[in-house]
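Q: Give me the 3D complex with 2-acetamido-2-deoxy-beta-D-glucopyranose.
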Amino acid sequence: MLRFAITLFAVITSSTCQKNGCLEGDTHKANPSPEPDMHECTLYSESSCCYANFTEQLAHSPVIKVSNSYWNRCGQLSKSCEDFTKRIECFYRCSPHAAHWIHPKHTDAIQSVPLCQSFCDDWYEACQDDSTCAYNWLMDWEQDGSGENHCKRECRPYREMYANGTDMCQNMWGESFKVSESSCLCLQMNKKDMVAIKHLLSESSEESSSMSSSEEHACQKRLLKFEALQQEEGKGTR
Ligand SMILES: *[C@@H]1O[C@H](CO)[C@@H](O)[C@H](O)[C@H]1NC(C)=O
Ligand SMILES: *[C@@H]1O[C@H](CO)[C@@H](O)[C@H](O)[C@H]1NC(C)=O
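A: Here is the predicted complex, encoded as structure tokens.
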């Protein structure tokens, strides 16, 4: 689990432009490098902010515990829900691009990473019958002496805990993610991210809420090409 908000003494490094580095979490490398022996999170093998050995704990289903965080406090996640949870974990731990969205105050955290609406809706659907006791998975736990997480509240199905995919994406991990208005300039933690990342990183005006329509258009065009190519190769990404 992304355990960032807990780092109370997070040094506020005056943004020394570490966009090419990694986040500063307890498992992160200083800089991304290839990890050919990844067990999971292979989307990031070519350039990874996690060591291959980190992914061992994600390699066996059901995943019980990642670092100090138990994933099964309200029972085992279903396979499909677990897969989405893994994709989020992999992005946070391993993506060489996560630091582009580094949290201004917590250097081990991300802020407002744009997720695709369809990704959030699919994720919600996959998890709706699974249960959780935390609305905000960063904050809503009782931590014991060894830093392990315990439920503070009762377990409830996701479909009761979160109103919909948007609510889940934008609140489950605190400020980490937002749902994008674009269907292209957004991440879904699969190979299509390569297209989105190219256009998201080329964005010059950082905080412009509405991306230029030409960037959107260019992204859509490239995504179509990418999808056609993938179909030819006969291997979908989902
Ligand atoms: C994982 O591998 C890295 C580099 O090979 C090493 O520094 C680290 O101690 C390893 N971690 C564990 C938990 O084995
Ligand atoms: C999702 O839930 C939020 C919070 O309850 C609500 O404001 C929003 O309108 C909902 N969105 C959709 C598409 O139903």
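A quick observation: Residues 4-18 have pLDDT under 50 and may be disordered.
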